[in-house]
């Protein structure tokens, strides 16, 4: 008779449990920091961070704050998909921030300098991200240059190019780019009535459902198509893939192109809403690309899991603005996110410890 497999041996269940452990430890550390600052209001502060938009007493304000969270979640979902896609194919796309910056640069410049339609701006952002990704892919495929090294270098190169290019479309009295809502309304992403769901929050656009749709399409591509199988096979063993007749170099470049395209799309889905502006005085690469790494691993390297983890990270990050800022710094929420991000690197270790515990338990049961 075939023995029933322990549910805790299931990879999906283990991924969920490990993610919950990361979140729990992050919340506990955040609470301890709040206790150290001022014990009297620590409980209320940690609750405020975890509740985020639910803190608002008025329904209209709650809906707007929820809309704000979702608008910031959409690009993070796409950045997590960028990292996840490459990782599934055996590559580590640490250059997502550079690809994101490239997408942002061309999207904003096309909108503010050329006043192009939002569709063209979106496509240009995707192409820009894909080109930067292809450079890393080509270096990896033909010169065996680590995609991590080339990705880091390109992050900084693209950042300074972005500052130079966008200085031509910035406000005369500041380092920030011109506002799309005032200078390029034709380039704004359409809302299609989505803003009405969030009490007419004008920045809620098609970016939200688009990010979810892309996550579903990436899952289908990886799990249900011949191309997805070839890409994953190339990542697992480049030589075996070549022996089987697969074009391994093409697959590596294509993987990085798709990964870069997703990061470029992420930037367009944020900046083309008009919710934020780029500062040409920026001296560090955008954190969105690096946060995508956390969201990907926290989501168990699953496209659907990335949707949930991306929302959670943005939820607690924006929840940090809900605490009593005269006593506690809003950066406590960022610290919690950082702890969770750090612990995501130990997911494999958590799984190993869980499996060892299960082995001991089953051995005792057998005896």
Labels describing this entry:
367 residues; single chain; mainly alpha
Description:
With 367 residues, the chain is mainly α. It has 15 helices and no strands. The protein has helices at residues 11-37, 42-51, 59-88, 96-112, 118-143, 147-166, 180-183, 207-224, 226-236, 238-243, 248-271, 287-298, 303-319, 331-344, 347-366. The chain is globular and about 75 Å long. The mean pLDDT is 91.
Question: How would you state the average pLDDT, rounded?
Answer: 91
Care to count the β-strands? 0
Largest sheet: none
The ordered H/E elements are HHHHHHHHHHHHHHH
Number of helices: 15
- What characteristic shape results from the CA principal axes? globular
What's the helical proportion of residues? 55-70%
Q: Strands, helices and their partners?
A:
Layout: H1 11-37, H2 42-51, H3 59-88, H4 96-112, H5 118-143, H6 147-166, H7 180-183, H8 207-224, H9 226-236, H10 238-243, H11 248-271, H12 287-298, H13 303-319, H14 331-344, H15 347-366
Helix pairs in contact: 1-2, 1-14, 1-15, 2-13, 3-8, 3-11, 3-12, 3-13, 4-5, 4-6, 4-11, 4-12, 5-6, 5-11, 8-9, 8-13, 9-11, 12-13, 12-14, 13-14
């Amino acid at each position: 008779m075939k023995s029933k497999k322990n549910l805790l041996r299931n990879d999906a269940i283990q991924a969920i449990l490990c993610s919950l452990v990361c979140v729990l430890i992050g919340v506990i550390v955040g609470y301890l920091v709040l206790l150290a600052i001022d014990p009297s209001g620590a409980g209320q502060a940690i609750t405020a961070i975890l509740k985020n938009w639910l803190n608002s007493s008025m329904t209209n304000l709650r809906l707007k704050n929820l809309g704000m969270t979702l608008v910031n979640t959409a690009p993070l979902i796409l950045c997590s998909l960028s990292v996840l896609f490459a990782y599934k194919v055996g590559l580590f796309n640490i250059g997502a921030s550079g690809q994101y910056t490239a997408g942002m640069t061309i999207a904003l410049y096309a909108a503010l300098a050329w006043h192009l339609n939002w569709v063209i701006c979106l496509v240009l952002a995707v192409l820009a991200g894909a080109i930067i990704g292809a450079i890393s892919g080509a270096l990896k495929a033909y010169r065996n240059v680590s995609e991590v090294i080339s990705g880091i270098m390109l992050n900084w190169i693209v950042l300074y190019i972005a500052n130079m290019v966008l200085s031509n479309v910035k406000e005369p009295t500041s380092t920030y780019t011109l506002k799309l809502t005032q200078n390029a309304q034709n380039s704004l992403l359409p809302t299609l009535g989505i803003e009405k769901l969030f009490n007419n929050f004008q920045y809620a656009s098609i970016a939200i459902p688009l990010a979810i749709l892309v996550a579903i399409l990436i899952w289908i591509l990886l799990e249900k198509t011949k191309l997805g199988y070839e890409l994953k096979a190339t990542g697992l063993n480049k030589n075996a893939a070549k022996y089987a007749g697969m074009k391994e170099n093409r697959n590596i470049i294509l993987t990085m192109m798709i990964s870069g395209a997703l990061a470029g799309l992420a930037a367009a889905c944020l900046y083309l809403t008009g919710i934020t502006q780029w500062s040409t005085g920026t001296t560090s690469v955008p954190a969105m690309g690096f946060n995508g790494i956390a969201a990907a691993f926290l989501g168990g390297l699953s496209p659907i899991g990335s949707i949930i983890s991306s929302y959670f990270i943005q939820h607690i990050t924006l929840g940090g603005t809900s605490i009593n800022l005269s006593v506690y710094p809003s950066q406590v929420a960022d610290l919690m996110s950082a702890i969770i991000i750090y612990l995501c690197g130990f997911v494999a270790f958590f799984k190993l410890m869980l499996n060892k515990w299960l082995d001991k338990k089953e051995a005792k049961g057998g005896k």
